[in-house]
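User: Please run a holo structure prediction.
Assistant: Happy to. Please share the sequence and the ligand.
User: Here you go; the ligand is adenosine-5'-triphosphate.
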Amino acid sequence: MKPKILVIDDEKSLRFTFQRFLSDEGYEVDTAADYQEALLRIGQECYDVVFSDILLGDKTGIDVLRAIKEQIPLCPVIMVTGYPNIETASEALRLGAFDYISKPVVKKDLLQVARAAIKYRHVAEENERNRINLEAVFSSVGDGLIIVDQQGELQRANEAAQRIFQLDEEVLGQPYREALSNCSVRSCDLLQSTLETGRQGQLERIECDHSPNSRQVLTLLTSPLVNAVGEAIGAVLVTRDETRIDKLERSLRKRHNFHKMVGASNKMQELYCLLDDLADVPSTVLITGESGTGKELVAEALHKSGVRHNKPLVKVNCAALSDTLLESELFGHVRGSFTGAVKDRIGRFQKAEGGTIFLDEIGDISHKVQLRLLRVLQEREIERIGESMPTKVDIRIVAATNRNLAEMVRQGSFREDLYYRLKVITIPLPPLRERKDDIPLLVEHMIDKLNGTMGKEVTGISQEVAEFFQEYNWPGNIRELEHVMEYAFVRCRQPVVALGHLPEDLLATKDQNSDASPQVVEEDEVQSICKALEKTAWNKAKAARLLGIDRKTLYRKLAKYEIDA
Ligand SMILES: Nc1ncnc2c1ncn2[C@@H]1O[C@H](COP(=O)(O)OP(=O)(O)OP(=O)(O)O)[C@@H](O)[C@H]1O
């Protein structure tokens, strides 16, 4: 396509001369006699080059220049000046004119400047295209891009970088170490090294804390920026947020433990994934499972892995306190509200502010406390005993029970509305007999712990013990396993725990069929309990310890099987 040139001059003869010279050279030429006509032409056509007289009636070539820079910014404008007035010409150049030529116009000069202007126009267009492409890439790319100059000042940050590094607009122009102050020191050092050495750098999957609420995993790449003559002019930092993929990979990897919990079985993997999902949500959680299955450890893990981890975790064993005491412990009281309330006291709910409250044995609370708890769950506020002013609380409630709350609701001993509020998310813990493949790992963990506390050097358990542990039913779950291992450690004076080191009553179950029906299992349990009671002369605390269950569980079982002295 022929380059298009506009010639603006109020002298007809000059317009004619320009048109002839330029058309002969192969350009398409339009002319305008004054400022208004020039504006009209510029509005209709996109010219490659404009020649404009510097004097145009009551307007000047400078006015034309301004109008063109506004409408066709890349179009070079050449001033034609009748008087070789250096000031006007240099003013025009300052305002962005490409060049100027003086009248009378010499054909050779005119064509030379026209060619140079066309060439400039092509280069400017090419640059503009590149700039637009680069801008589109810069803003649309998912990776964070940060450009710093050689002095370390932050020049540009695309949207992704602003999101990843939690930057605001004002950081542009700041030293990058200040702008990225939340970032791991390692990423700033990487950038520094590239600025100093002019070499690329990379950091794979490092953990950063830009986002206060969650862990962030980033991969960083730095490259030097050089100008046309090879001088270093800065560096670019490319950041890929790999948090999601890292989380996915972790969830696919088989985990052997989670916080203090040990276990690699499928049931535990499911549990760890659920705990990951629940970590950062405020929902109330109900943990259910037999005694000794690790409900308290789960509550701790939930708290420690979530956003509230640096706030308090307050534990309350609801079964350990009398009704009045529990009420006052949970909600606090004002002085004189009941006999013994000698001074004001805040309750555990307030002590847990910002953190988590763990209500263990929730199935054991009275109707009165159930009602008060329901209000906390509904309104997220508490009232101290003897006070009618409610106080807002921000706490996550995690409750646990080994009782069948649904059954208790049916029997009318637990409020249905509270039950539904509590069980928004339920974590059922499997009994140990349903994840026996975790026993070797648990035993290994317990051996390490016991070697430490007892100063022994036990290396493992014998094959017979391992087999027996797989056959046994573990009614007291992990707590029972812990007690058995502790007992064996006391008895064991050799590197390997053998059958003979295990408690006698446990060994007595050895020849019984482990795949027995529930009825047979219950009969076995009754027998074990009776044996333990006889052995300890009906000292229930000692019997519970012997059985590897806690006292409350023993009481429950005595009631269930109607065993009495
Ligand atoms: N997955 C596990 N890994 C290692 N130790 C565990 C695990 N689960 C439980 N334990 C240990 O077993 C014992 C009992 O755990 P915990 O008190 O959490 O159980 P629980 O279900 O709350 O019992 P209860 O209902 O009787 O209160 C604790 O000493 C605990 O450290």
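The first helix runs from residue 12 to 24.
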